[in-house]
Amino acid sequence: MIDFNIPPHTGAEEQYIQEAIEKRKLCGDGMFTRRCSEWMEQTLAVRHALLTTSCTHALEMAAVLTNIGTGDEVIMPSYTFVSTANAFVQRGAHIVFTDIRPDTMNLDERLVEDAVTPRTKVILPVHYAGVACDMDPLLDIARRYHLKVVEDAAQGIFSYYKGKALGSIGDYGCLSFHETKNLTMGEGGALLLQEDESLKKAEIIREKGTNRSQFFRGQIDKYTWVDYGSSYLPSELNAAYLWGQFTMFQEIQQDRMETWEFYHQAFQELEQAGYAARPVIPSYARHNAHMYYLKLEDLDTRTRFISYLKERGVMAVFHYIPLHSSPAGRKFGRFHGEDKYTTRESERLVRLPLFYGMGQESREKVVQTVKDFFTV
Ligand SMILES: *Cc1c(COP(=O)(O)O)cnc(C)c1O
Questions:
Q1: Is 247 helix (H, G, I), strand (E, B) or coil?
Q2: How far apart are CA 375 and CA 370, in angstroms?
Q3: Positive or negative CA dihedral for 85, 88, 93, 97?
Q4: Helix, strand, coil percentages in the chain from 3-state DSSP, rounded to 5
């Protein structure tokens, strides 16, 4: 059987976990957390990076940093994971969903300005499949209406928009290191920040509302409760696993890219024959092989496709049920404009197995099984 996903493991991780244990410091913000943060700052060319317990938590921190409050509005796509919305619902915000572009499945930048109201505070692009949203028009709207931009770059590490790392473009960027993402620490994430002032506030939110981080740097002589906060710092054990992954990131990425390219090449014929659409990468985007998907004719074809593959030992999956049609989405938000593509395109999309080290034999089996579905 070919799994849909196996969490990345390179063999470099164990040694660092052992080191963390021997250091007798397991709680957050030790040596491995610091190494991971500095590595992200350098590699992604972002001013500040804070390791967090998940991308969900990074989004929650970003929500607090935007000062969003009851009744304020956030514009985001409906085609996303629940955490994108929950982080803002938790602060009392109202979610305004706008339609996606059918080519990238990303927020359609041309529809965002029309959804802006006097209550709008935040635009929240989600870089689906690690393929960049068209950020320049969104940044322009944000500047003209004094809005904050929070990037959900959960799937976007090592992806770029016009040469800039995803997550480093808006005011706040959120990455995920969940086991289904390119690099992992089990559960984990990072908050990327562009301003020193934001870092100060973020450190306080992450450290239970205290100024403990400043205390440890010797900048103040006692630490105390200074603002709202929670506990968003991961254990050193998790950070040590991630550090192992960071040291091997080129190998992981190269392997994923090979799988992606192999699929893309192999499915060209299917696309030309009109059976399935392949992912589109706009010229402004450099992607990270986070995901390989196909878009089939309709929901019924997809349902038959997934069970056909499953019977032959290939695990393919679909996601997301558009948030605006879910019970919570209806309660906490509204869809602005026409749902031309969100529902229709989401029902066509199916994700194929793609994970580090899946091997050529598995790639070939996936391709052959997919082709068989259409041609038998
Ligand atoms: C995975 C994912 C998240 C949540 O990440 P966690 O680290 O599991 O909290 C949020 N948004 C998107 C788009 C994701 O793919």
A1: helix
A2: 9
A3: negative
A4: 40, 15, 40
Q: Report CA(296)–ligand 1 centroid distance (Å).
A: 25
In the block, which residue shows the tokens 């965002």? 112
Q: What is the residue with the minimal CA distance to atom 5 of ligand 1? A: 55
| Pocket (CB within 6 angstroms of ligand 1) | 54-56, 80-81, 83-84, 126, 152, 154-155, 176, 178, 189
Q: What is the pLDDT of residues 279-309, one digit of tens each?
A: 999 999 999 999 999 999 999 999 999 999 9
Residue from 316, 305, 320 nearest 372 by CA: 305
Residues 251-266 pLDDT 10s: 999 999 999 999 999 9
Does residue 174 contact residue 167 with C-beta atoms inside 8 Å? Answer: yes
pTM score above 0.90:
yes
Residue 161 tokens read as 């928009």
- Single-letter amino acid code for the residue at 225: W
In this structure, what are the phi and psi dihedrals at residue 169, rounded to the nearest 5 degrees?
-100, -45
180 Cα nearest atom in ligand 1:
1
* Whole-number Å distance between alpha carbons of 3 and 355: 9
